[in-house]
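Batch manifest, entry 17 of 40.
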Amino acid sequence: MGQAREHVLGFLCAIYARDIATALTFLDDGFEFVGHVPVELFPHLGARHGKAEIAETLTAVQKRYSSMHHDVMFIAADGDRVAAITRVHLRKRNNDRVVEFLAADFFTLRNGLIAEQRQFVDSFDLVQQVLEREVIEDIKQNLRARLTLAPAE
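Output type: structure tokens
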């Protein structure tokens, strides 16, 4: 149980230390990642398969953010499954603003390597931080327009 936990902690440390090569050593060759975020705004996230796609994703994140930091707030392991809640801090490269959010990650290990990762974030809050504006009014207007245009039943 402790080995899986330590393996995930090592993986997270490598990611936020911006050490892609080390991060990849924690992964199974058939690694599957799913980030549950709006891929229209975060095209580098979503479903990714294999180490090459993860390396591309991590490279894209590093290009967007000049620094990255994380705090593991909770981690639990049960055999080859690990769950972690992490507070993530990313500094935007284009204007030095900090984006901060919580991520819930669920990992499955196979033969001592991470085979799967499912990530959930408060995407509404994340979108507002990345866009640097409140988006609720946009959503309300879009919803009103759709309801107005909907055919009568």
